[in-house]
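New to this. Explain the following:
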Amino acid sequence: MSDLTPKEVVAELDKYIISQDEAKKSVAIALRNRYRRKNISDENIKDEIIPKNILMIGPTGVGKTEIARRLAKLAGSPFIKIEVSKFTEVGYVGRDVESMVRDLLETAIRMVKDEKSKEVEKEAARRAKERILEILLPGTSKKDETSTSSKQFQLAPGFNTDTEDDEKDKEDDSEKNKLVERQQRRRERFLERLEDGYFDDKEIEIQVESKTPKTIDIFSNAGVEEMGINMEDLLGSLMPSKTKNKKVTVAEAREIFEEQEADKLIDMDDIIDIARERVQEEGIIFLDEIDKIAGRESDSGPEVSREGVQRDILPIVEGSTVFTKYGPVDTEHILFIAAGAFHVSSPADLIPELQGRFPIRVELNSLSKENFATILRQPENALTKQYRALLETEGLDIVFTDSAIDAIAGYAAQINEQTENIGARRLHTIMEKVLEEISFEAPEMDKGELEIDADYVDDALASVVQDRDLSRYIL
């Protein structure tokens, strides 16, 4: 993160997201401000600087979620997306709003664990190979050889022998040396074959932990987490892990053993401490569909009060301590990015306290035909590139002409105007329809290059688009 200037952040986001320059600029500044805060030497000032949370306003499918997700990936920050509308569902009796922080911490723990596992990757792989060799060649591990040779060559203390016995012992030692050398050479040959993948398809029997979960029925886990109790740790001695014998290939065994050995080499307490710190300093929570909880509660309807949900979320956004089974998490410096279409409401319908916690507001624009064409051509994960990669597996090299891309973009813009505007997501449904026949026939088609032009797109879509009622359901 320290190497990325705001301009460089925007340039990276441009690789995946078209248009929406104002939103990209806002999140790039927010990311850089985190780096700046870390470098402040005055701890009193540092503690007072809180993230400037962002509220994105715009229709669905214009890049709100993608901007937040790509930003988190770029910064290597823990990130989760929460649809806040779920807290207003009828009959909702599930997890409380603080669960978003617990989920973020779980995400951070997985991230840090993966990082630490990569650091011990080589040692874990070496240990995994040793375990496989012990199964393939029992009694020939390095540990066994050392212990065996020590028993063979050491005499008991105070044991006296005459010259004849000494000569006999030398002969015996010579035979034992030859045996050890043969075992060592055999072991080295097996190790070379193992590394070359010669045994990958061979089946061996190993012990694995049973997947049967150790569970206890709890009606609400919020109270347990608030007390900081890890039920699995608490009951670990009473409900020990069960193992079972399982036949797997050597390749599968290697993966299982590497994971097990990596777990032994890393310190989970250290991982949890790092993850908590990362959540508190770098965490990003994306609050989607915040417009669905905008507005005052009404007298009718059984759902949970929308204003009540806002008031539940407010302390977390303001900065509070959330208790988890891994310890307390301070939310004061977590960056919150909220988003909503605000078709039937406005940001002013949010309670004033919550409005004040999202000082940066950016409006994302609807996508035009030209934007759709750029989306199909430019991004590194463009749909045209994805479908081309998919069909290459069938031996087909599909090529989209400029006229075909323009035609698809035109249909997307037209249907968004005629029906519900779902932004760039419309391209997914149109591309599926355009390539439906090719995807179905691909295994039996002649291999080689296949050109998709405007005429092909028109033939695939014209009948559906002309029938407005039909296009409403299909596209």
